[in-house]
């Protein structure tokens, strides 16, 4: 039975403490903060979820792991130098007994205790002199009585993408129980025992290198995350990261640009700096895995984009009371309209004259939009505009989550109107007000809700889905608090959709990330 070193006898908790101390003693520099419009906070329960997802997969990659051969020459009194070797050392498999994750000041520490660790190997020795040549070989099994592994990883922003790097990584084996088979193994036990420390060191180094290799694949995956999320032919969300991630004792916060850009334009690298910003404290229960805060500028940016694209207009040729869109229904209220255009159908052209303005306050979301409603008469061969009514419309609404999309619904609060111009004389105020109310409640609001019901995607990695979400509204921002589930294996095609082409080699899968 090989003896454990003092460091090897450390459990998961002391190892975790050691790595956290290292991240505090050797901090990384933090640049000035930029101006984000979306903030995503992963809480301790979210970190635990990610740990429980990745650690078992990391353990799977250690199965059948090969350790480099070990050869050494041992000097035996009287006999002389005997050459011994331990070869074909293979890790049979491991099981995770328990694991822990914690955020330090500059990174995240993951530590795990492994059980049922076993290895197989082959052994041999040879001795030769001018008188005699002796050699023997056999195989052996090694049972490890406990193993602790840990890795401390940092994250930083690099040109709008996340860069993951390993700050410290270690593997510590406890007792080794070596059983030899073949040859005169009872005689050679003492020789093979001389290899225990070398076997320990070789296995620890190999596992450490494998963990670092897995971290590099995770870095490759994170670096390949898309910098924009396509919404439609007009808009895409700019999801480049701004600032370095910020770490607290129980969470990690990521800042995202979040504004909408034309879908045919590459998301620009954000280099605006406005000084330090503080970690946003989530409202409500901190047990939720994920908190996403969206500034009202996000919604105003998409309204400005659609306005600039000329999409905030709608032609109305059908209403619930269809007779209202015929000049005959107005002959007693607007006689001139009927005299000049008897029994003619009418068409309403509703268009925004400025981008809608979204304002978010505690418990409510308000939007104001200024519209022009042009009344047109359908002639035999042409469309004749006869009047224009200016409207200022106020709606209020609420947001919810459907799948991974943020959706909404509004209702009419109030509106005011003025006659902008008229070629058919003065219009009766009461009649115009009734007509506009019908148009707004039965056409405009449902039309807006049809688009809001589709919503736009929240910045969630493919393969994960939001669940048990609820919405909070605070001053100037909407906060989505939720848990997440992993529902779709990230095969090669899935990674390509999420990360794009990040390397000339085949795309990295979730299982290959560790």
UniProtKB/TrEMBL annotation:
- One term under GO cellular component: extracellular space
| Molecular function GO labels | lipopolysaccharide binding
One Pfam family recorded for the sequence: LBP_BPI_CETP_C
The protein's superkingdom reads Eukaryota
Signal peptide start and end residues: 1-34
UniProt keyword annotations, A-Z: Glycoprotein, Signal
- Every Lipid-binding serum glycoprotein N-terminal domain range: 42-265
In the record, biological process GO terms are: reactive oxygen species biosynthetic process
Domain Lipid-binding serum glycoprotein C-terminal intervals: 284-482
Identify this protein by name.
BPI/LBP family protein
From what organism does this protein derive?
Hordeum vulgare subsp. vulgare (Domesticated barley)
